[in-house]
UniProtKB/TrEMBL annotation:
Protein name: Sodium:alanine symporter family protein
Record PANTHER family: AGSS FAMILY TRANSPORTER, SODIUM-ALANINE, AMINO-ACID CARRIER PROTEIN ALST
Membrane topology: Multi-pass membrane protein
Protein's UniProt keywords contain Cell cycle: no
Gene Ontology CC annotations of this record: plasma membrane
Domain of life according to the entry: Bacteria
Phylogenetic lineage: Bacteria, Pseudomonadati, Pseudomonadota, Gammaproteobacteria, Alteromonadales
Broad class of the protein's primary localization: membrane
Amino acid sequence: MFEEVVGTINALLWGRGQLLIYILLFAGIWFSFKLNVIQLRHFSHMFSLLKSSSKAEKDQVSSFQALCTGLSARVGTGNLAGVAVAISLGGSGAIFWMWVIAILGMATGFAESVLGQVYKIKNNQGEFRGGPAYYIQLGLNKPWLAVTFAVCLFLGYGFSFSAMQTNTITDALRFAFDIPELYSGIVITLLAGSIILGGLKSIARFAEQVVPVMGILFVSVAVVITLMNLNAVPAMIKEILLSAFGLQEAGAGAMGAAIKNGIQRGLYSNEAGAGSVPHASGSASPVPNHPVTQGYIQMLGVFLDTIVLCSCTAVIILLADINISGEMEGIRLTQTAMTAHLAAGGVYFVAAAITLFAFTSVVANFAYAESNLHLFKLDNKVGRGLYTSLYLLMMLWGATATLKEVWSLADMALGLMTLVNIFAIVQLTPTVIALNKDYHAQRAKGVEPTFDDSVIRVQGKCTAGVWSSK
């Protein structure tokens, strides 16, 4: 019965209905138009903000830590296993559509991250909390819709995503080292528990230390493999483009599969529009103190995740001389491809990379859902303890669940979150535009931009950039 319900919803969102594909394309085009293609015009400005991104108010999360936390959640199974799934089901052309949704998604990610920074609160522990549920409640004054999003978030980031990340790690470790899934699942759960019990600051510090190192390492290996197979690169690019538009033997059916799987896995990887990253954005105390700063920082995260890291995985798979069956394949396809390039060491490298990538996602996903406990009056010891226990139990379940079960549940949760979030951020477009104009008007005067809540329509009460409901 449960599988039937999940299957029916996914068929509407991702299957024949393809509702989310149209919605995501609309959102990306909408914000690209409304913000005058900000992701291309101000491309270099994203990087310039990194210079001051490590600064923050005392005992608060910096912009750089928020970026790393966002990348912790983004950079995971979607980059190594998700790309493999997209290629196995949609062919090499899926990578082109993954790029398209990432470029459009940069504008969407900018909008939702700006809103996450504008509408934030301070909890009892003195930590900032923000995200779609908060900007829906404070910006749109729709508490019922805020609760709807929070429920979808708990179903996704609170439970099914942690199970999916654990499933990928244990599968990779079984394939590389023949470690039973249950044993590795127990160890991963205990390690994750030791970090998440330290709270948001502990999670941000962990992300800041691990994410840059593992990202640079993975990109370096992909560059080496590309150089080793440089003569095959033109043919690979040609194959990606021809397959993307159904110009190979398989025809239009292949094009449809490429679009569907490319966009679906692209969204899962970079999460632009899904409403997850605004939680990281809302947790930051940025310098300069203007919401648009976080919009640019998190827009950079979309670029790094999909255009850089997902492309690295695609290059590794497509340049390998291996057979792609057309059946759904996950992390083992990436491991097989890496083995073709680096012999026996390849499978071990991917196992280590996916363990780190997915583990950081598990930790960040916990923080996203935990941010919404405040909406249910559960932001206390009992509420956090109950949520933490359920979260860790779902990780254990994911260790031994099947690939199809875990990905189907994750797809449904992500799809429902995205529907609610896109509706909200489109409604709040005037706020995003007003803040963006204000930010650049202040820069044009040669002053460091600061936030003034008079720029936007007020639905709640704001004091020093921290909001509370009426």
